[in-house]
Amino acid sequence: MLRTLEREVDEAFDQGFRAVRLTTDFSWVLGEPGRSDLSQMLGCEHQVGEAVSPSTMAMAICQVDKHACPQDELVALRNTHEVLVEVNPEFDDGILRIVRTFEPHGLRVEGELDAARHAVFAEKLSQVTCERRRIHLDFSRLGFIDLGGLNLLAHHATGLRSDDALVLDHLPPDVENVIDMVGWHRLPGLARGRERTSSGTGGLGS
């Protein structure tokens, strides 16, 4: 495989291409009989890196099935890479960033959700709700949400079918308290999801 990669890279540059992009999937290594650690996987990635790194115009993207290894091994693999590939955001204006998530299915909301961004959030929420019954909203990177944003969530939840739900993951404690105080937690279309870690930060604005 290494000889094939080296040959393809050389041929591409010989043909006048200005850059080469490679993608590899080493998930099969994780299923090899007798595997006891990540050394074989890391060894494969190191050799591919050696084949690609001599040229700054060649770049390789390493893929791995996250279901093929335990969480601690997945973290170790992630830490060996300087850059992680992520899907393009649905919206990003430098203040609010909305990213599609797939496991679980839904949206990750980052930054600040204020009145100026209610419309775009409502639009993205409506788009993703059309596809699945239970939609997870990840607020682990949320820094601020105003009462209008919470009202938007409640209004959206009341319009869902009886077997649908918005699952709110990693809510800041003060936001969760407001939801409880006004009784929105009783809405059938809203459900609590995973709890926010102690290191998370977030705020509620009027």
UniProtKB/TrEMBL annotation:
Top-rank taxon: Bacteria
Query: Which residues are listed as membrane-spanning?
Result: none
In what residue span(s) does the STAS domain sit?
A: 107-183
Which CDD domains is this protein grouped with? Answer: STAS_anti-anti-sigma_factors
* Pfam families hit by this protein: MEDS (PF14417), STAS_2 (PF13466)
The record ties this protein, via PROSITE patterns, to: STAS
What is the name listed in the Swiss-Prot or TrEMBL entry for this protein?
A: STAS domain-containing protein
Which organism does this record belong to? Actinomadura fulvescens
